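Obj.: predict assembly geometry.
Materials: sequence records (below).
Method: joint structure prediction, all chains together.
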Amino acid sequence: MSSATSAISMRGAGYYSANTAGAKTVIDKAGDLVAEAIAALPVETGAGAFALADYGAADGGTSLDLMRRVVGLVRSRAPNRQIAIGYTDLPHNDFSALFRLTQGLLGDATKTPLAATPELYISGVGTSFYRQLFPDATLDLGFSATAMHWLSKKPGPIADHVQAVGANAAERVAFQAQAAEDWETILAARARELKPGGKLVVANFCVDGQGRYLGNTGGVNMFDTFAKHWRALWTAGRIGEAEYRAATFQQFYRTAEEFAAPLKNPASQAAKAGLRLDHVSTHVTRCPYAKDFERHGDAAAFARAYVPTLRSWSETVFAGALDPARPAPERAAIVDAFYGAYEAEVAATPDGHAMDYVHCFMSMTKESRG
Amino acid sequence: MSSATSAISMRGAGYYSANTAGAKTVIDKAGDLVAEAIAALPVETGAGAFALADYGAADGGTSLDLMRRVVGLVRSRAPNRQIAIGYTDLPHNDFSALFRLTQGLLGDATKTPLAATPELYISGVGTSFYRQLFPDATLDLGFSATAMHWLSKKPGPIADHVQAVGANAAERVAFQAQAAEDWETILAARARELKPGGKLVVANFCVDGQGRYLGNTGGVNMFDTFAKHWRALWTAGRIGEAEYRAATFQQFYRTAEEFAAPLKNPASQAAKAGLRLDHVSTHVTRCPYAKDFERHGDAAAFARAYVPTLRSWSETVFAGALDPARPAPERAAIVDAFYGAYEAEVAATPDGHAMDYVHCFMSMTKESRG
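Observations (raw C-alpha cells):
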C-alpha cells in the first residue's frame, strides 16, 4: 500500500511486510495475470533490459516472490537478458529498507537475495504515482498492488465516519469524483511510461459486485468498527470534535466498472494513449488472521495478531487527526487506547472480525501503433 | 562522500550537506569539466532520455546545483528531451532525504525544486558502486565526487594510525594494492554502463604532486591530529588497545598517476571496454571554515564550526571502533570527548588547522566502436 500525500505514511523498516501476510497472498495470486502478460511480451527479441516497475511498493517485501517469478519467466526465455526493476513509492518511504531487503541485509536470510540475481538492476523512485515516474516508452511491464485506492487529495470531509464507505451521499459524490479523476491521471501516466506493446497489471482494493470491500465481507464491518471506537473516544471526552472529524482515510474503493471506465471511453487520456483493457475480475482473499483463528480458536491470540495488521496501515490517519498541541506521549496514549478498545472487542466477541481483502485485478496493454 | 561497506556510514537527513560546504564547492568546480563533457555529447540527436548518474550521492544536496546546470545545458540544446538522473549510494543511505530534498520537501525552500523540472525523472540506486548499477550502455554521463576513496574492503590493519596516509610501509602496500584493484573494478563497471560515446567525470580525493591530501596542505595534518587524540584516549586508559587499533578509515588516496593507470594500460578491463582518458588534473579547494576564520579571527567560533564538518564523515569510524559491549551512552561520551579534545586544540591553537580538499579531476569517454 502507498499513500498519496506526505500527511499519510506507513511505519518503516520491515514492520509493514511482516504484518501484511494477506497483502502478499494477493500479490502471489495476481502473479498468474503477470505471467500471462509476460507470455504475450516479446521477451526474447526486445531491445535492452527487460524493464518493470512496481508502483507503491513500500519496502518491496510483499512482492519479492512475485519479482522472483518474473525474473524466472523472463530468464527462461531470454537467459542473458538484463532486467531492471524500478520500485516506486512516496518520498518518505523507507527506500533503505527496500534496498536492504532486496540485498538480503534485512528479512529472510534463508532465501537468495533478489539483488543477487546476475544482471538484475534495482532502483527506487520516491515520487507519487500521480506523476509520470519513468521516461516515455521505457517499461515492458508495470505492476501495482493495493496502492491506488489512496487519493491525490482529500476532496472534502467525512463528518461522521472515517472512510468513504461510510460517507453520506454528498460526501461520497465528492470522493467518487476525485477517485475518477485520479484514476484517469494514474492510467495516463502509466500509458506514457509503457513501451508500445507493454503491459500493466494492477490489483486494487475495490467494492465488488456483492458490495463487499476490505473488512466487509459478511461479518463485522472493519471501517464501521474503526468509526465506532473513534466516536467512543469523542463521546467519552477523550478527543475533541475537530479531532473526531479529522480522522478520514484519503481513499476510495472503486468498483470494477469504475476501474474499467477510462479504458472503455475512447475520449479518455489513457485510451488515446493506446491503453486497452485485457482483463478485469474481482477476488476475495481471506484474512490470514481470521483463518488462523478458525484453526486455533484462541480469541485473545487472534485479537493480538489481528489488530496490529490493521494498525500498520491505519495508525497514521488516527494519530494525524489528533491536535498537535497535545504532548506526544498523550497522543500516543490515545492511539494506544483506540487500538486497545478494538483489540478488546475482538478478544471478547471474535466471531465475524476479519480483514478479508477484496480486490479488482486488471490487465492492460499499451497498443503498438504503426 | 560514500562509504563502501555497511559498517561505515554517514549521519542522515540533511546533516551531511549542511556540514559539507567544501564538498559542494568542489562539485561546482568540477562543473566545468562536466559542461565540457556534455558539449561533446550528441544531446540533440540522442535516442530516448538523456541519462546521467551521480555515484555516491549521499542525500544529493552537494550536487543539486550541478544537476541544475546539467539540466540547463541539455535543455538549451534539446528543449524537449527527457532527462533521467540516477542517484546511487549504499543501501543504508537516506534515500528518503534525497527524494525529499530534490522535491523541495527538505532544504532550501527558496529555490525551485530540481524535481519540479518538467520531464525530469529521478531515481535512486541503493547498491555499492563496486557493482554495475545500470543496464549496459544506458548512461550518457556518469559523475561522482568525493566518493571513490572508500575501499571495497579493509585490506589489513593500520596499527598506529587511523588512515593509510599514516600507515607503515607494509600496511601501505596492502592499501595501495586494494585501491588499485578497486579502481579497476569501478572503472570496468562504469564502462559497461555508459553508452558508446558516453562520458564519465569524477572528482576524487588524491595525493597531489606536492604530497598534499585532505587536511594536509602545509598546516596541521588533520589525520595525524585524529590519530593523536585517539591515541591519547588509549594512553589515558579511556579506551582499550583493540579499540585504539580498530579505528581505521577504509580509504586510500590515490595519486593522479594511480588514477590514470588503468586507462593507460591496454590490458585493463576498463581500456578493453573502450574507456579513454581525456583529462586529469589536481585541485586544492580551501577549507571554507579556515577561510572564514581568516576573516573573523574568532578561534572558538572556528573550532565550533570546523570540527562538526570533520565529525560528519569520520564519526562512524571512531564510534564503530569502540567495544559494542560498552553501553551506548558510554560510547557516545567517548566519541564526544574525542571531538571535544580536537575542538579544544583548534580553539587554543587555531593556526594551520584546515580541511583543505585535494582532488583529482578526471574526464573519460567510452569510445564508440564500429
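Conclusions so far: Confidence is low (pLDDT under 50) at residues 1-18 of chain B.
To do: check interface contacts against the pulldown list.
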